[in-house]
């Protein structure tokens, strides 16, 4: 179906149910079609939270608890990889965590027009993600240009987050799914989908393209070059880190029962070993 421009633009309400009792809830990002949305909300106590819908009219028949399973597993595995957990919990068809943006001011909103002419209200100057760290940008749209690279001193943390996602088979590694907290720390977010087998295949098809197996889409030439330089610079620390990951006491369970539908500990260990082999085999100096 071709997109039709609505004239005048149509205002679309994407709101959290008022029965949840939040004082203020704004969309965390422009929602994608009918996909359930994510919000930043203020509780009556004043506490700010991130809250993600799992169900909406489009998928009412799905099981919210099941949709949250891999996200909760992924977050609980982070300490084993010595990276910071988000602290996601599942409550009644929502995924909830603290608002890591740590804003001190009230949320400001902004109108966002989609190509079809619909208007959403989203949070203005919302949480920073890796996308915001990409420079240069198109001054008119604010979007990173194709040759943009990431400006940061957190390369090692970013590499660990990307590698963690690859090791556990969390598929949606795109710049907006890596959050920069209000304190400048790097958080891995939005690990909703498990696709370990697919990701293994992609890696097997293109074994030397290290930076490509970490991202969902092929990164630009500039980002690939940057990734290589980061790897070179941090190879020793990454080697130490990867060797120090101890999965011997880790189990993947759902409702208390062991499961392998999100891959196995052995498959995670295999990916770690294969990364260590890749590091040793690369022309990097150790
Ligand atoms: N804990 C959080 N605190 C603050 N902002 C967040 C948090 N989690 C996500 N966000 C922001 O909300 C956006 C959407 O969250 P995400 O989990 O990626 O959901 P979606 O499935 O809608 O993509 C993120 O890109 C980020 O900007
Ligand atoms: Mg996301």
Task: Give a short summary of the structure.
The protein is an alpha+beta fold. It has helices at residues 64-77, 155-168, 196-205, 210-214, 221-243, 265-281, and strands at residues 24-27, 38-42, 48-53, 89-91, 94-98, 109-113, 119-123, 128-129, 134-137, 144-150, 178-180, 186-188, 253-254, 257-258.
Describe the overall structure.
The mean pLDDT is 93. This protein has a 5-stranded antiparallel beta sheet, covered by helices on one side. The protein has a 3-stranded antiparallel beta sheet with strand order 8-11-12, covered by helices on one side. The chain has 286 residues and is an alpha+beta fold. The protein contains 6 helices and 14 strands. The chain has a domain at 127-284. The radius of gyration is 20 Å and the shape is globular. Residues 176-177, 190 line the site of magnesium ion.
Give the overall average pLDDT. Answer: 93
General shape:
globular
Strand numbers in spatial order across the main sheet: 1-2-3-5-4
Order of helices and strands: EEEHEEEEEEEHEEHHHEEH
Taking Cα atoms only, what radius of gyration do you get, to the nearest Å?
20 Å
Task: Please describe the biggest sheet, giving its number of strands, its sense, and whether it closes into a barrel.
Answer: 5 strands, antiparallel
List the total number of helices: 6
Please count the beta strands (DSSP E, at least 2 residues each).
Answer: 14
Secondary-structure-derived class? alpha+beta
Oligomeric nature of the chains: single chain
Our estimate of the beta-strand percent is 15-25%
Low-pLDDT residue spans: none
Give the terminus-to-terminus CA distance: 55 Å
Q: Which range best describes the helical content: under 10%, 10-25%, 25-40%, 40-55%, 55-70% or over 70%?
A: 25-40%
